[in-house]
Amino acid sequence: MKYGVNRILFPARKTFLIDENGILIHIIDNVNLYTHPRDVLSIFETEKLSDQSNYIKE
Predict the structure, then answer these.
(1) What is the DSSP letter of 10?
(2) I want to staple 26 with a disulfide (CB 3.0 to 4.6 A). Which of 3, 17, 18, 47 is the partner?
(3) What is the pLDDT of residues 21-30, one digit of tens each?
(4) Distance (Å, rounded) from C-alpha 26 to C-alpha 45?
């Protein structure tokens, strides 16, 4: 199990969005195959406009 993704019965679909500095900025737990590309672009656009204090720190 890598990155906390459970793969016991079926492959789990998750997306980890990481910025150019290697900082994890968002995790998409429920991937919708129809809206996923738009969702990813929207999150990156929002993060670009928001303050870096909203980033997930690990």
Answers:
(1) S
(2) 17
(3) 888 889 998 8
(4) 12
The model carries a pTM of 0.62
Q: How is residue 10 written in tokens? A: 């079926």
Domain ranges of the chain: 15-54
Query: Which parts of 1-58 fold into alpha helices (H)?
Result: 36-49
3-state secondary structure the chain: CCCCCCCCCCCCCCEEEECCCCCEEEEECCCCCCCHHHHHHHHHHHHHHCCHHHCCCC
